[in-house]
Specification:
Layout (H helix, E strand, L loop, with lengths): L3 E2 L10 H8 L12 H14 L3 E5 L2 H12 L5 E5 L3 H4 L4 H6 L2 E5 L8 H7 L10 E7 L10 H13 L4 E5 L2 H8 L4 H4 L4 E5 L10 E5 L1 H13 L8 H13 L4 H16 L4 E2 L9 E6 L3 H12 L3 E2 L8 E4 L6 H17 L1
Parallel strand pairs: 1-11, 3-4, 3-5, 5-6, 6-7
Antiparallel strand pairs: 2-8, 7-8, 9-10, 10-12
Helix pairs in contact: 1-11, 2-11, 3-10, 6-7, 12-14
This protein binds pyridoxal-5'-phosphate (PLP).
Length: about 350
């Protein structure tokens, strides 16, 4: 069955062009650094994202953890948003892999506040951990986009204290599309970057870690340590190249569909959503119904051929993606209206 799948943009399948490129990809052994397609992807990623060097890695999680491993020593403190992916969804890896503490800074109105980050930087005091990394995220996991000015301010605060910045840019191309700027306008305000190829950009596997040549070479060793030294991964890099070159330009379609969905949901009794807050491909809403109705909603939606995420932290999240059309968005709104009318 062909589901209409709004659980995430990670569900996107490789395009026909990607599958053809994968089938004919020239490959070598990437641990020996002689896989030509991977080398091409890494060189091109460095260029497009505005860094000296880039490394093809298995996942966004690996990229974030590589930055922590490169930039911290045991006992150091990393500043990160309390709701960010590194804190919420990386299985506590910072403690295991880097032995780092994370100082979690709450957002205000869904966005990071430079002054709060500045206040969290530790003084040079023998009793306190050293602050050795500031982690940013853009787009944020809550669907918001951090303005360029805020990124610049945080970067300047960090550098005034000789602290590097890492940017979890799993959806950096969504952020750039939303702001209407070249991605380099955002990546200039970070020292290392994670960028996912396998979300809205539709590659089947993979992400990019980028930074200075020196940091990327250290990350290459850590990637090997984590079991991420791949061999004929040109097959994956071939899809990654298309993700990088061709897919960012269509992300605005997902954003428009998300905004359209929010306007449709707004009309449904019991649903609260603010279309003005839809900045990328994610729509968050609350639904005024008893808990059992909310918990059973994903199962009910399957009857309409639709997959949606579960009720989490009081909200539902719908994510538009390459496999979701404007007509599908209308179908979702219609199905929700019907189900909620009965409940
Ligand atoms: C903001 C953010 N960062 C990092 C990741 C991790 O990516 P991966 O699933 O490839 O490990 C995700 C995944 O959804 C994400 O949303």
């Amino acid at each position: 069955m062909d589901w209409i799948d709004l659980r995430s943009d990670t569900v996107t399948k490789p395009t026909d062009e990607m599958r053809a490129a994968m089938a004919s990809a020239e490959v070598g052994d990437d641990v020996y650094q002689d896989d030509p397609t991977t080398n091409r992807l890494e060189a091109r990623a460095a260029e497009v994202l505005g860094f000296e060097a880039a490394l093809f890695i298995t996942s966004g999680t690996m990229g974030n953890q590589l930055s922590l491993m490169c930039n911290t020593r045991r006992g150091d403190e990393v500043i990160a948003g309390a709701q960010c992916h590194i804190v919420m969804h990386e299985v506590g890896a910072a403690a295991v892999l880097s032995g780092a503490n994370i100082r979690q800074i709450p957002y205000e109105n869904g966005l990071p506040v430079p002054a709060r980050i500045a206040a969290a930087i530790r003084p040079d005091d023998i009793h306190e951990p050293r602050t050795t990394l500031i982690c940013m995220e853009n787009a944020l996991a809550n669907g918001r986009v951090v303005p360029i000015e805020t990124m610049r301010e945080i970067y300047e605060i960090a550098h005034a204290h000789d602290i590097p910045v890492h940017l979890d840019g799993a959806r950096i191309f969504n952020a750039a599309a939303s702001l209407g700027v070249d991605v380099k306008e955002l990546t200039r305000y970070t020292d290392t970057l994670t960028c996912c190829l396998s979300k809205g950009l539709c590659a089947p596997v993979g992400a990019i870690f980028a930074g200075t040549r020196e940091t990327v070479e250290r990350a290459r060793r850590y990637r090997k340590m984590l079991g991420g030294g791949m061999r004929q991964n040109g097959i994956l890099a071939a899809a990654g190249l298309i993700a990088l070159e061709k897919m960012p330009e269509r992300l605005h379609v997902d954003h428009e569909n998300a905004r359209y969905l929010a306007t449709l949901l707004q009309e449904i009794p019991g649903i609260s959503v603010n279309p003005e807050e839809v900045e990328i491909n994610m729509v968050f809403c609350t639904i005024d119904r008893p808990l059992p109705v909310l918990e059973s909603l994903p199962e009910r939606m399957k009857e309409y051929g639709m997959l949606i995420g579960g009720y989490e932290e009081g909200q539902f999240r719908f994510v538009t993606n390459h496999g979701v059309t404007r007509a599908n968005v209308e179908q979702l709104a219609k199905a929700l209206r019907e189900v909620l009318a009965e409940a």
